[in-house]
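Field: COMPLEX_INPUT
Field: COMPONENT_COUNT = two
Field: RESIDUE_TOTAL = 527
Field: MODE = joint
Values follow.
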Amino acid sequence: MTITLIADAPVDVDTEGFLTNSEQWNEQIAEAIAKANGIAELTDRHWLVVRFMRDRYLTTGSAPSIRSLGKESGVPVKELYQLFPKGPAKLAAKIGGIPKPKGCI
Amino acid sequence: MSRKQIVILGGGTGGTMVANRLRRRFDLDAAEIHVVDRDDRHVYQPGLLFVPFGLAHVEEIVRPRRRQLRSGVVFHENEVAEARIARDEVLLEDGTVLPYDALVVASGVRLQPEETEGMTGPGWNERVFTFYDAEGADALHGALERFDGGRLVVNIADMPIKCPVAPIEFAFLADWYLRERGVRARSEVVLATPLDGCFTKPIASEHLTYLLGEKEIELVTEFSAGEIDGVNGKLVSYDGREVDFDLLVTVPVHSGAAYVERSPGLGDALGFVPTDKHTLQTPAKANVFALGDATDLPTSKAGSVTHFEAEVLTENIARYFADEELEAGYDGHANCFIETGFHKALLIDFNYETEPLPGHFPTPIGLPLLRESRLNHLGKLLFQPIYWHVLLPGRDLPGLGSAMPTAGKKRTLSTPAQGARR
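Field: COMPLEX_OUTPUT
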């Protein structure tokens, strides 16, 4: 684990750049992570997904998979991939300041 | 203690083991035990892997469910309409109401090929198959016999799936099968997975990736199947990548049983049942327990997991009835043979905390872990009679308890031969 500066704030991150302490997160950090990962601007649809992921993590202790995200967030899976190219669940988790989703076993 | 009513939903691996263990634990006048399943076909699911290659036939791996249950267990061949957990009763589709003191959800998963665009469209069961059910495995057998070279693609539509090693085993066996038939030189074998490696656990994934490379099986990672075009033989990911195929072997999306979604407060958005990872009690209600593929637990959906859980769950139902504290006894233990073709197999053994490690199982003298051997292949073959005659009846297998053994495991990381590291 290392400490890095994102949007002028020192935050703890893992080797892949996921925040390991979700309390250090704020919206400026989210925008900075998004930019660094190829999303120039976070739209309302992005925020809807990011906040859904974050709320779910903070209330249940784990982030939803892409499929449950598609079923529960109101944003269909196809659109999730347009919003967050490559890996929607991973990227939305990173922007939302929560640990990397464990995926499935 | 008045006579307790126990209702078990599902007569597969978990439901049968729990019913038989409970039946031995409680006298007939202490508990009435009901098992509900919509059909009377108990499939030995590890056998499905062998059907497409002609190494097993469907009739050899299917037996009547009711015959696996001890006398004194009541079997209902019926669909569950709804579990009414607020009222401690289950409604069946024929209108029967089963009240209970304890409910066990053991209804496994449901395959949902229709959730992936195009999967069940033109080409389904012609050049697009699954071996995850008996009918599909049988149909795929015919297609493999006719396969005369080309691109054979194995794809996992989405996680979670039952037995996450099965698609890898399928690719290994396909390599072997095509070589035996002399068509391997004009064939490509591809494994496309949504994971970032071929398996979920890093050390085992590294060993398996090395084996895939040795067998010239192409691995495509982080591939989330969005659409299947069975006419033109194209598998398209959500992010627009295409994988061409002549024959597609797919593992469809999995959800929990349909009634779980119809039962308020029981399941999550995908129909899996949130369950305490150590006690197997559900947060839905204190008298509702779950095991096996039906749960949302962070371990593999596999028969070995279900078997280890069955021990803990039986104990906890007894403790629940006796008003005692539940045993937080399940440690996530899973144990899988991985067929690698050419009469060899590999064995992995792990739990919530410990990923599959090399060494030997269950003690320093035993089956080799994470290494191909003929002994492991024999172990896999021997497993079917053990399943029907020892595990389902709920007998204990010496040396194979619920908790993961550590005696034979090597804790230092070993590096497989060259080529495995990225």
